[in-house]
Fold this sequence. Notes:
Number of domains: 2
Strand content: 15-25%
Helix content: 40-55%
CATH topology of the largest domain: Acetylcholine Binding Protein, Chain: A
Shape: rod-shaped
CATH architecture of the largest domain: Distorted Sandwich
Largest sheet: 11 strands, mixed
CATH superfamily of the largest domain: Neurotransmitter-gated ion-channel ligand-binding domain
Order of helices and strands: HHHEEEHEEEEEEEEHHHHHHH
CATH class of the largest domain: Mainly Beta
Amino acid sequence: MCLFHFLAVIVTTFAQDEGSFVEKCTKPRLTPAAILDVIMANYSRSLPGNPVGVQVEVTVQDVMELSVLSNSFTADIWFSSIWYDPRLAYSHLDNCRQNLSFDDRFEKLIWSPNVCIVNTKSAHVHRSPKPNVLLMLLPNGTIWLNYRIRVQSPCSMDLARFPIDTQYCQLVFESYSYNTASVSVNWMANPVTVLPEISLADFDLSRYRTSRHTEVYKAGEWYRLTVEFEFTRKYGFYILQLYVPTYISLFISWIAFCIDTKALPARIVLGVNSLMSLTFQFGNIIRSLPPVSYVKAIDLWMCTCVGFIFASLLELAFVAYQDKKLILKSGKSNAAISTLVSYLKHFEPYHDVSSPPPPAPLDEKKSMSRTTSTGTNRSRSELDGLDTKDLEEEIAEYRKLAYARKKWRLLDFGANVDRISFIVFPLTFAAFNVVYWTYYLQDVRISTWT
Protein backbone atom coordinates (compact mmCIF):
# COMPACT_ATOMS: atom_id res chain seq x y z
CA MET A 1 0.00 0.00 0.00
CA CYS A 2 1.19 3.50 -0.84
CA LEU A 3 0.90 4.76 2.74
CA PHE A 4 3.15 2.10 4.19
CA HIS A 5 5.56 2.58 1.32
CA PHE A 6 5.73 6.26 2.25
CA LEU A 7 6.31 5.36 5.87
CA ALA A 8 9.14 3.04 4.87
CA VAL A 9 10.72 5.87 2.92
CA ILE A 10 10.52 8.16 5.97
CA VAL A 11 12.02 5.52 8.23
CA THR A 12 14.79 4.78 5.74
CA THR A 13 15.63 8.45 5.39
CA PHE A 14 15.76 8.88 9.13
CA ALA A 15 17.94 5.81 9.44
CA GLN A 16 20.36 7.22 6.86
CA ASP A 17 20.52 10.54 8.68
CA GLU A 18 21.15 8.81 11.99
CA GLY A 19 23.38 6.09 10.56
CA SER A 20 26.09 6.52 13.18
CA PHE A 21 23.61 5.83 15.95
CA VAL A 22 22.07 2.81 14.22
CA GLU A 23 25.44 1.18 13.89
CA LYS A 24 25.97 1.47 17.67
CA CYS A 25 22.43 0.18 18.40
CA THR A 26 22.31 -3.24 19.99
CA LYS A 27 18.84 -3.42 21.58
CA PRO A 28 16.12 -0.99 22.68
CA ARG A 29 17.08 0.64 25.94
CA LEU A 30 13.58 1.79 26.98
CA THR A 31 10.12 0.35 26.73
CA PRO A 32 7.45 2.27 24.75
CA ALA A 33 5.69 3.13 27.99
CA ALA A 34 8.88 4.58 29.45
CA ILE A 35 9.57 6.62 26.34
CA LEU A 36 6.00 7.91 26.41
CA ASP A 37 6.27 8.89 30.06
CA VAL A 38 9.40 10.91 29.38
CA ILE A 39 8.20 12.81 26.28
CA MET A 40 4.74 13.50 27.70
CA ALA A 41 5.98 14.66 31.09
CA ASN A 42 6.05 18.36 30.19
CA TYR A 43 4.04 18.20 26.94
CA SER A 44 1.51 20.93 26.13
CA ARG A 45 -1.20 20.73 23.44
CA SER A 46 -0.19 24.09 22.03
CA LEU A 47 1.16 24.82 18.55
CA PRO A 48 4.59 23.25 18.05
CA GLY A 49 5.60 26.06 15.67
CA ASN A 50 4.26 28.94 13.68
CA PRO A 51 3.12 27.95 11.13
CA VAL A 52 3.13 24.15 11.25
CA GLY A 53 3.62 22.40 7.93
CA VAL A 54 1.10 19.62 7.33
CA GLN A 55 1.16 17.22 4.39
CA VAL A 56 -1.94 15.35 3.26
CA GLU A 57 -2.30 12.12 1.28
CA VAL A 58 -5.39 10.17 0.13
CA THR A 59 -5.69 6.56 -0.97
CA VAL A 60 -9.01 5.54 -2.56
CA GLN A 61 -9.81 2.02 -1.45
CA ASP A 62 -13.19 1.61 -3.13
CA VAL A 63 -16.00 3.61 -4.71
CA MET A 64 -19.36 2.07 -3.89
CA GLU A 65 -21.81 4.36 -5.62
CA LEU A 66 -22.17 7.44 -7.78
CA SER A 67 -25.76 8.65 -7.58
CA VAL A 68 -27.21 11.13 -10.06
CA LEU A 69 -30.33 11.47 -7.90
CA SER A 70 -28.45 12.69 -4.81
CA ASN A 71 -25.56 14.32 -6.75
CA SER A 72 -22.97 12.51 -4.66
CA PHE A 73 -20.53 9.62 -4.57
CA THR A 74 -19.73 7.23 -1.74
CA ALA A 75 -16.20 5.94 -1.22
CA ASP A 76 -13.90 4.26 1.29
CA ILE A 77 -10.59 6.11 1.63
CA TRP A 78 -7.42 6.12 3.68
CA PHE A 79 -6.75 9.69 4.68
CA SER A 80 -3.37 10.67 6.15
CA SER A 81 -1.95 13.82 7.75
CA ILE A 82 1.78 14.17 8.46
CA TRP A 83 3.39 16.94 10.50
CA TYR A 84 6.45 17.52 12.66
CA ASP A 85 6.38 18.12 16.42
CA PRO A 86 9.94 18.29 17.87
CA ARG A 87 8.60 17.98 21.42
CA LEU A 88 7.70 14.34 20.68
CA ALA A 89 11.16 13.34 19.40
CA TYR A 90 12.61 10.36 21.24
CA SER A 91 15.73 9.50 19.23
CA HIS A 92 17.88 10.75 22.12
CA LEU A 93 16.16 8.30 24.42
CA ASP A 94 16.26 5.18 22.23
CA ASN A 95 18.05 5.21 18.89
CA CYS A 96 17.13 1.60 18.16
CA ARG A 97 13.35 2.01 18.07
CA GLN A 98 12.23 3.18 14.60
CA ASN A 99 8.59 4.07 15.42
CA LEU A 100 5.87 3.97 18.02
CA SER A 101 2.30 3.09 17.01
CA PHE A 102 -0.84 4.16 18.85
CA ASP A 103 -4.60 4.09 18.41
CA ASP A 104 -7.06 6.98 18.39
CA ARG A 105 -6.82 7.53 22.17
CA PHE A 106 -3.29 8.91 21.92
CA GLU A 107 -4.43 11.52 19.41
CA LYS A 108 -6.46 13.22 22.13
CA LEU A 109 -3.31 13.70 24.20
CA ILE A 110 -1.25 15.59 21.62
CA TRP A 111 -1.67 18.58 19.35
CA SER A 112 -3.04 17.83 15.87
CA PRO A 113 -3.85 20.13 12.94
CA ASN A 114 -7.41 18.80 12.77
CA VAL A 115 -7.38 18.31 9.00
CA CYS A 116 -10.83 17.20 7.87
CA ILE A 117 -12.96 16.82 4.77
CA VAL A 118 -15.18 19.89 4.82
CA ASN A 119 -17.51 19.19 1.89
CA THR A 120 -18.86 15.78 2.91
CA LYS A 121 -22.55 15.08 3.25
CA SER A 122 -21.67 12.32 5.69
CA ALA A 123 -18.48 10.68 6.97
CA HIS A 124 -17.63 8.12 9.60
CA VAL A 125 -14.57 6.20 10.71
CA HIS A 126 -14.79 2.49 10.06
CA ARG A 127 -15.10 0.29 13.13
CA SER A 128 -14.12 -3.33 12.57
CA PRO A 129 -14.68 -3.68 15.46
CA LYS A 130 -12.52 -0.82 16.84
CA PRO A 131 -12.00 2.56 15.12
CA ASN A 132 -9.65 2.25 12.14
CA VAL A 133 -7.24 4.97 13.26
CA LEU A 134 -3.46 4.72 13.23
CA LEU A 135 -1.09 7.24 14.79
CA MET A 136 2.61 6.57 14.24
CA LEU A 137 5.36 8.51 15.95
CA LEU A 138 8.85 8.54 14.40
CA PRO A 139 12.07 9.11 16.37
CA ASN A 140 12.59 12.66 15.08
CA GLY A 141 9.09 13.76 16.17
CA THR A 142 7.30 13.26 12.84
CA ILE A 143 3.67 12.19 13.34
CA TRP A 144 1.67 10.22 10.83
CA LEU A 145 -2.09 10.12 11.49
CA ASN A 146 -4.21 7.84 9.28
CA TYR A 147 -7.96 7.26 9.17
CA ARG A 148 -9.96 4.71 7.23
CA ILE A 149 -13.29 6.41 6.61
CA ARG A 150 -16.38 6.18 4.44
CA VAL A 151 -17.38 9.50 2.90
CA GLN A 152 -20.32 10.72 0.87
CA SER A 153 -19.25 13.83 -1.00
CA PRO A 154 -20.98 16.02 -3.59
CA CYS A 155 -20.53 15.84 -7.35
CA SER A 156 -20.97 18.46 -10.05
CA MET A 157 -23.60 16.65 -12.09
CA ASP A 158 -24.18 17.78 -15.66
CA LEU A 159 -26.55 15.45 -17.53
CA ALA A 160 -26.65 17.40 -20.78
CA ARG A 161 -24.73 14.58 -22.53
CA PHE A 162 -26.44 11.69 -20.73
CA PRO A 163 -25.89 8.75 -21.23
CA ILE A 164 -22.52 9.61 -22.85
CA ASP A 165 -21.52 11.92 -20.03
CA THR A 166 -18.63 12.58 -17.65
CA GLN A 167 -19.15 13.57 -14.01
CA TYR A 168 -16.80 15.23 -11.53
CA CYS A 169 -16.73 14.69 -7.76
CA GLN A 170 -14.62 16.48 -5.17
CA LEU A 171 -13.03 15.93 -1.77
CA VAL A 172 -11.99 19.16 -0.03
CA PHE A 173 -9.51 19.14 2.86
CA GLU A 174 -8.89 21.95 5.36
CA SER A 175 -7.49 22.41 8.82
CA TYR A 176 -10.77 23.11 10.50
CA SER A 177 -9.29 24.69 13.63
CA TYR A 178 -6.27 26.63 12.32
CA ASN A 179 -5.99 29.27 9.62
CA THR A 180 -3.05 30.10 7.36
CA ALA A 181 -1.24 31.92 10.17
CA SER A 182 -1.02 28.72 12.24
CA VAL A 183 -1.00 25.79 9.80
CA SER A 184 0.26 25.44 6.24
CA VAL A 185 -1.55 22.53 4.60
CA ASN A 186 -0.16 21.08 1.38
CA TRP A 187 -0.23 17.92 -0.70
CA MET A 188 2.48 15.30 -0.50
CA ALA A 189 4.63 14.55 -3.53
CA ASN A 190 2.33 11.63 -4.42
CA PRO A 191 -0.98 13.06 -3.17
CA VAL A 192 -3.55 10.53 -4.42
CA THR A 193 -3.42 6.78 -4.92
CA VAL A 194 -6.28 4.84 -6.53
CA LEU A 195 -6.29 1.10 -6.04
CA PRO A 196 -6.49 -0.73 -9.39
CA GLU A 197 -9.29 -3.11 -8.39
CA ILE A 198 -11.86 -0.31 -8.13
CA SER A 199 -14.80 -1.02 -10.42
CA LEU A 200 -18.26 0.52 -10.63
CA ALA A 201 -21.23 -0.94 -12.48
CA ASP A 202 -21.96 2.16 -14.55
CA PHE A 203 -18.85 4.39 -14.25
CA ASP A 204 -15.10 4.29 -14.75
CA LEU A 205 -12.82 6.33 -12.51
CA SER A 206 -10.76 7.67 -15.40
CA ARG A 207 -8.48 10.24 -13.76
CA TYR A 208 -8.11 12.79 -10.98
CA ARG A 209 -6.42 16.10 -10.27
CA THR A 210 -5.34 17.98 -7.16
CA SER A 211 -5.22 21.68 -6.39
CA ARG A 212 -4.44 24.04 -3.53
CA HIS A 213 -5.71 27.52 -2.92
CA THR A 214 -6.54 29.93 -0.12
CA GLU A 215 -10.17 30.15 0.91
CA VAL A 216 -11.37 33.39 2.49
CA TYR A 217 -13.91 33.20 5.32
CA LYS A 218 -15.23 35.82 7.70
CA ALA A 219 -12.87 34.43 10.37
CA GLY A 220 -9.79 34.67 8.13
CA GLU A 221 -8.00 32.68 5.47
CA TRP A 222 -7.64 28.92 5.33
CA TYR A 223 -5.60 26.71 3.03
CA ARG A 224 -7.80 24.39 1.03
CA LEU A 225 -6.75 21.18 -0.72
CA THR A 226 -9.05 19.76 -3.38
CA VAL A 227 -8.93 16.42 -5.16
CA GLU A 228 -11.35 16.10 -8.08
CA PHE A 229 -12.23 12.72 -9.56
CA GLU A 230 -13.43 12.25 -13.11
CA PHE A 231 -16.01 9.50 -13.68
CA THR A 232 -16.86 8.45 -17.23
CA ARG A 233 -20.16 6.65 -17.69
CA LYS A 234 -20.24 3.17 -19.21
CA TYR A 235 -22.98 3.60 -21.81
CA GLY A 236 -23.04 0.00 -23.05
CA PHE A 237 -26.12 -0.70 -20.91
CA TYR A 238 -28.01 2.16 -22.55
CA ILE A 239 -26.96 1.04 -26.03
CA LEU A 240 -28.53 -2.37 -25.42
CA GLN A 241 -31.53 -1.28 -23.36
CA LEU A 242 -32.45 2.00 -25.05
CA TYR A 243 -30.82 2.75 -28.38
CA VAL A 244 -31.17 -0.71 -29.96
CA PRO A 245 -34.89 -1.03 -29.03
CA THR A 246 -35.58 2.45 -30.44
CA TYR A 247 -33.86 1.48 -33.67
CA ILE A 248 -36.06 -1.63 -33.87
CA SER A 249 -39.25 0.33 -33.12
CA LEU A 250 -38.36 2.87 -35.78
CA PHE A 251 -37.62 0.20 -38.39
CA ILE A 252 -40.91 -1.54 -37.61
CA SER A 253 -42.79 1.71 -38.22
CA TRP A 254 -41.15 1.94 -41.66
CA ILE A 255 -42.43 -1.52 -42.60
CA ALA A 256 -45.82 0.16 -43.00
CA PHE A 257 -44.50 1.84 -46.15
CA CYS A 258 -44.19 -1.61 -47.77
CA ILE A 259 -47.80 -2.60 -46.98
CA ASP A 260 -50.52 -1.88 -49.54
CA THR A 261 -52.32 1.42 -49.04
CA LYS A 262 -55.67 -0.44 -48.86
CA ALA A 263 -54.53 -2.24 -45.67
CA LEU A 264 -54.99 0.79 -43.42
CA PRO A 265 -55.70 -1.13 -40.14
CA ALA A 266 -52.45 -3.09 -40.38
CA ARG A 267 -50.44 0.07 -41.05
CA ILE A 268 -52.10 1.90 -38.16
CA VAL A 269 -51.34 -0.97 -35.76
CA LEU A 270 -47.65 -0.94 -36.72
CA GLY A 271 -47.28 2.81 -36.22
CA VAL A 272 -49.21 3.03 -32.94
CA ASN A 273 -47.45 0.01 -31.40
CA SER A 274 -44.05 1.45 -32.29
CA LEU A 275 -44.98 4.76 -30.72
CA MET A 276 -46.25 3.12 -27.52
CA SER A 277 -43.18 0.90 -27.10
CA LEU A 278 -40.89 3.90 -27.60
CA THR A 279 -42.75 5.89 -24.95
CA PHE A 280 -42.58 2.96 -22.51
CA GLN A 281 -38.81 2.58 -22.99
CA PHE A 282 -38.23 6.28 -22.45
CA GLY A 283 -40.29 6.22 -19.27
CA ASN A 284 -38.20 3.38 -17.81
CA ILE A 285 -34.96 5.31 -18.38
CA ILE A 286 -36.20 8.71 -17.24
CA ARG A 287 -37.35 7.35 -13.86
CA SER A 288 -33.70 6.87 -12.82
CA LEU A 289 -32.78 10.52 -13.54
CA PRO A 290 -33.38 13.71 -11.58
CA PRO A 291 -35.97 16.14 -13.01
CA VAL A 292 -33.56 18.61 -14.62
CA SER A 293 -34.88 21.48 -16.73
CA TYR A 294 -32.36 21.36 -19.59
CA VAL A 295 -32.38 19.11 -22.64
CA LYS A 296 -30.33 15.94 -22.37
CA ALA A 297 -28.85 13.86 -25.16
CA ILE A 298 -31.34 11.11 -24.43
CA ASP A 299 -34.21 13.62 -24.68
CA LEU A 300 -33.04 14.74 -28.10
CA TRP A 301 -32.75 11.12 -29.27
CA MET A 302 -36.15 10.02 -28.01
CA CYS A 303 -37.97 13.12 -29.27
CA THR A 304 -36.43 12.67 -32.71
CA CYS A 305 -37.42 8.99 -32.85
CA VAL A 306 -40.96 9.83 -31.70
CA GLY A 307 -41.06 12.54 -34.37
CA PHE A 308 -40.10 10.05 -37.09
CA ILE A 309 -42.79 7.56 -36.01
CA PHE A 310 -45.37 10.33 -35.75
CA ALA A 311 -44.39 11.55 -39.23
CA SER A 312 -44.98 8.04 -40.61
CA LEU A 313 -48.47 8.13 -39.08
CA LEU A 314 -49.06 11.54 -40.67
CA GLU A 315 -48.04 10.10 -44.03
CA LEU A 316 -50.57 7.31 -43.54
CA ALA A 317 -53.25 9.84 -42.56
CA PHE A 318 -52.50 11.90 -45.66
CA VAL A 319 -52.96 8.92 -47.99
CA ALA A 320 -56.14 7.85 -46.16
CA TYR A 321 -57.51 11.40 -46.39
CA GLN A 322 -57.00 11.39 -50.14
CA ASP A 323 -59.08 8.19 -50.34
CA LYS A 324 -61.79 9.80 -48.23
CA LYS A 325 -61.84 12.83 -50.50
CA LEU A 326 -62.35 10.54 -53.51
CA ILE A 327 -65.32 8.84 -51.83
CA LEU A 328 -66.86 12.20 -50.95
CA LYS A 329 -66.39 13.53 -54.47
CA SER A 330 -67.86 10.33 -55.96
CA GLY A 331 -70.89 10.61 -53.70
CA LYS A 332 -71.44 14.24 -54.68
CA SER A 333 -71.08 13.32 -58.38
CA ASN A 334 -73.63 10.53 -58.05
CA ALA A 335 -76.09 12.85 -56.33
CA ALA A 336 -75.64 15.50 -59.03
CA ILE A 337 -76.21 13.02 -61.86
CA SER A 338 -79.27 11.55 -60.14
CA THR A 339 -80.69 15.04 -59.74
CA LEU A 340 -80.02 15.78 -63.42
CA VAL A 341 -81.73 12.57 -64.55
CA SER A 342 -84.75 13.27 -62.35
CA TYR A 343 -84.95 16.74 -63.79
CA LEU A 344 -84.72 15.50 -67.40
CA LYS A 345 -87.56 13.05 -66.87
CA HIS A 346 -89.99 15.96 -66.69
CA PHE A 347 -89.31 16.82 -70.34
CA GLU A 348 -90.17 15.08 -73.61
CA PRO A 349 -89.57 12.35 -74.65
CA TYR A 350 -89.34 11.14 -71.02
CA HIS A 351 -92.41 12.85 -69.60
CA ASP A 352 -94.85 10.10 -70.61
CA VAL A 353 -92.67 7.39 -69.17
CA SER A 354 -91.73 9.06 -66.03
CA SER A 355 -95.25 10.48 -65.38
CA PRO A 356 -97.97 8.06 -66.71
CA PRO A 357 -101.53 9.41 -67.13
CA PRO A 358 -104.12 8.68 -64.47
CA PRO A 359 -105.91 5.33 -64.83
CA ALA A 360 -109.08 5.27 -66.98
CA PRO A 361 -112.30 3.41 -66.19
CA LEU A 362 -112.40 -0.31 -66.85
CA ASP A 363 -114.80 -0.05 -69.79
CA GLU A 364 -112.67 2.53 -71.47
CA LYS A 365 -109.56 0.34 -70.99
CA LYS A 366 -111.30 -2.59 -72.72
CA SER A 367 -112.42 -0.46 -75.64
CA MET A 368 -109.06 1.18 -75.98
CA SER A 369 -107.24 -2.15 -75.92
CA ARG A 370 -109.02 -3.16 -79.13
CA THR A 371 -107.99 -0.12 -81.11
CA THR A 372 -104.94 0.01 -83.29
CA SER A 373 -103.99 3.47 -82.09
CA THR A 374 -103.66 2.17 -78.53
CA GLY A 375 -101.15 -0.48 -79.63
CA THR A 376 -99.15 2.15 -81.43
CA ASN A 377 -99.03 4.36 -78.32
CA ARG A 378 -97.91 1.39 -76.15
CA SER A 379 -95.10 0.56 -78.57
CA ARG A 380 -94.01 4.15 -78.57
CA SER A 381 -94.12 4.31 -74.71
CA GLU A 382 -92.06 1.11 -74.47
CA LEU A 383 -89.52 2.60 -76.87
CA ASP A 384 -89.33 5.74 -74.77
CA GLY A 385 -88.94 3.64 -71.60
CA LEU A 386 -86.10 1.68 -73.20
CA ASP A 387 -84.36 4.92 -74.15
CA THR A 388 -84.61 6.17 -70.56
CA LYS A 389 -83.33 2.87 -69.19
CA ASP A 390 -80.37 2.85 -71.57
CA LEU A 391 -79.49 6.42 -70.55
CA GLU A 392 -79.51 5.55 -66.85
CA GLU A 393 -77.41 2.44 -67.46
CA GLU A 394 -74.89 4.44 -69.47
CA ILE A 395 -74.71 7.09 -66.76
CA ALA A 396 -74.21 4.42 -64.07
CA GLU A 397 -71.51 2.73 -66.15
CA TYR A 398 -69.80 6.07 -66.64
CA ARG A 399 -69.87 6.71 -62.91
CA LYS A 400 -68.32 3.31 -62.22
CA LEU A 401 -65.58 3.85 -64.77
CA ALA A 402 -64.82 7.37 -63.48
CA TYR A 403 -64.66 6.13 -59.86
CA ALA A 404 -62.44 3.19 -60.80
CA ARG A 405 -60.17 5.50 -62.76
CA LYS A 406 -59.84 7.91 -59.84
CA LYS A 407 -59.40 5.00 -57.43
CA TRP A 408 -56.51 3.55 -59.37
CA ARG A 409 -55.03 7.01 -59.72
CA LEU A 410 -55.26 7.44 -55.94
CA LEU A 411 -53.74 4.02 -55.28
CA ASP A 412 -50.91 4.87 -57.60
CA PHE A 413 -50.48 8.21 -55.81
CA GLY A 414 -50.40 6.48 -52.39
CA ALA A 415 -47.87 3.93 -53.65
CA ASN A 416 -45.66 6.74 -54.92
CA VAL A 417 -45.88 8.53 -51.58
CA ASP A 418 -44.93 5.29 -49.78
CA ARG A 419 -41.98 4.73 -52.09
CA ILE A 420 -40.71 8.25 -51.55
CA SER A 421 -41.22 7.95 -47.77
CA PHE A 422 -39.41 4.60 -47.70
CA ILE A 423 -36.35 6.36 -49.11
CA VAL A 424 -36.58 9.79 -47.47
CA PHE A 425 -37.26 8.61 -43.91
CA PRO A 426 -34.22 6.28 -43.57
CA LEU A 427 -31.91 8.77 -45.29
CA THR A 428 -33.02 11.59 -43.00
CA PHE A 429 -32.62 9.38 -39.93
CA ALA A 430 -29.18 8.27 -41.10
CA ALA A 431 -28.13 11.92 -41.43
CA PHE A 432 -29.43 12.59 -37.92
CA ASN A 433 -27.41 9.63 -36.61
CA VAL A 434 -24.22 10.95 -38.18
CA VAL A 435 -24.69 14.36 -36.56
CA TYR A 436 -25.83 12.94 -33.21
CA TRP A 437 -23.07 10.37 -32.68
CA THR A 438 -20.35 12.63 -34.08
CA TYR A 439 -21.24 15.35 -31.61
CA TYR A 440 -21.80 13.25 -28.49
CA LEU A 441 -18.96 10.76 -28.95
CA GLN A 442 -16.31 13.44 -29.22
CA ASP A 443 -14.08 13.88 -26.19
CA VAL A 444 -14.97 17.16 -24.48
CA ARG A 445 -12.94 16.52 -21.33
CA ILE A 446 -10.03 18.71 -22.52
CA SER A 447 -12.21 21.82 -22.50
CA THR A 448 -13.57 21.15 -18.99
CA TRP A 449 -10.45 19.69 -17.33
CA THR A 450 -7.95 22.51 -16.82
